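re: that chain from earlier
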Amino acid sequence: MKKGDKAPDFLLYSDKTEPFQLSLQEKPVVLLFFPGAFTSVCTTELNTVSNELEAYGSAIVRGISTDSPFALKAFSDANGFRFDLLSDHDADVAAAYGCKYDRDFTSMKLDRISKRAAFVIDRDGTVAHVEVLENAGGMPDLDAVKEVVKAL
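^ sequence. v structure.
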């Protein structure tokens, strides 16, 4: 996945068990893939975004992990996130976006975990920004994401 590619469409369910289909959105969309609910870096990243949500303008912000919608609801409720989290339980969307670990996430050989990644999709469904981190302990460049959104 690279800048300028057509973003793969998907339908996922949110932490509120509501459907979210990318192709039906009429605003830019920020997709923040994260490895797992209730983990330290994921909590820090999503709280940072939630606290600065106005800086993303009219863009629709969504977090995506392979956790169930019910785990994501508990995670969101515990942290008071101001945007929805989407459940990619089978990691199909993470795979389509090129940000799925292949059984090499820790020594446990977990399969179905997304890498930490940030994508900005413009109104036409084109990828305007891509950042996929190999190290789950890192954080995406959220300032770069905000700059891309501002330019759209």
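The radius of gyration is 14 Å.
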